[in-house]
Amino acid sequence: MAAAASSIVGNNILSRLLDRHNRWPFGGLAELLHNSADADASLVSVGTFPTPVGADPFHPHFALDISDDGKGMDHGDMVRMMRIGADESIGRKDKRGKIGGYGVGFKAGSLATAHTAVVLSSCLEKRTVSVGLLSNEPYEERHERPHVGLVATQSMDTAMVDEETTTVEGRDRILDLIAKINPCLTRERIALWSGQMHGKSGTTVYLCGVRRNPDLPGRMIYEFVNERNGGDGGRSAGEPVGGEYGRGDDDKDVADMPDLRLLAPGASDRDMMFDEFPGRYDDQNAPMDYSLRAYLGLMFKSRTPKIRLFGADVAQRDLAAELVYRRRVDLDLDLDVGVGSDSAIRGDVGLHPPSEKRGLSGAMLYCENVLVSSYARQEFEIPPDERRLGVLLVVDLPKSTSESRTVHDRGFKPKDNKLGFDWAGKKRFRRKLRAEFLAYEDWADAERDR
């Protein structure tokens, strides 16, 4: 019989990993939702465990709960996801259309948000239930080596361990460690989850020890909003960094809904927190910068998967459909691919009134349906101009299959943290996008004069 899969890494490698890959607080949560989308989930729910929204999020037993109804993971999938540096998409029959696969997403995303991730996954195809533990808590609390990649698997039908991968002792060790880190995640609680998932596939991630240090980049300073009509719950260390809601049409779906909002008690914190936020445009902030609900509404270009935040459905938006004076543009540089081809790269450019009110403009770049870069201007050398306020170019780019940094195929390579692209080898595309963006002004003026 094999022991439960596990590995231990030295010193503070996990802390260094998370600081390198996720400086934006919501970026960590985004990584987990990307994984759910890659698992073909139709519904992803973000909630709290075991306390309701409004309880103290800094209580040691508090956890964020991210659950989906995707394909689930068997033992091998779970081990690959937990292993440092492993390609998280290895073992999938078809990686096309998947945003993941860099080997850092789950680890960096989880630990940017909390010190421990407990993963429960039910795989109907293999009829197994697996439990995994990824924790930097030993290092952060006692300067001991962290627990990385501890995985145990048992039968969905008999609850007996899978003798090819797991021993009873190995499973017991993992369950004891989980209960030590969060006493609310007991054996009984995990057994209850397994029973509820019998005959189903899906994955739940509990993020324990939510980060709250305002002196370190990438740590959350936030409040929970748990009542409609603006009722606030949880800690309130300052004003929402975006100011009051209700200043534009893009706020109407988030103003009075349960939410997780970032706070900036002081100017120095504000500057620090917005250093790499995707919505940053000079001194202007978009709702997605500080409202998790607003960000989730734009995360996927299509409305799949459906997202539920703290019990209330997220209004997922189609930015291209919201554009006025919209123009379809061809961004493909391959002469063999015509505009009418299904594989051509096409985008939409137009005026977005809510963005105009906030002084925002630029390119909204998706990759395989996932938002990677928003309000992008500098990488395309688009100078600020009042005539361009509110102009957005929305496009979904194919992901590159190249293993090298310089991409010469028709695909594009997101950075490891998926908050931007590596543009090496894409100079012509950047020029093409810039030209289409700037040409829109004359086209829109002509349309208005008709």
TrEMBL record:
Record-linked InterPro entries: HATPase_C_sf, MORC_ATPase
UniProt cross-references to Pfam families, sorted A to Z: HATPase_c_3 (PF13589)
Gene3D superfamilies in the record: Histidine kinase-like ATPase, C-terminal domain
GO cellular component annotations of the record: nucleus
Location of region: Disordered: 227-252
One function term, GO molecular function aspect: ATP hydrolysis activity
PANTHER family referenced in this protein's UniProt entry, alphabetically: OS06G0622000 PROTEIN, ZINC FINGER CW-TYPE COILED-COIL DOMAIN PROTEIN 3
Source species of the chain: Odontella aurita
Protein name, per record: Morc S5 domain-containing protein
Phylogenetic lineage: Eukaryota, Sar, Stramenopiles, Ochrophyta, Bacillariophyta
Regions of compositional bias (Gly residues) in chain numbering: 231-245
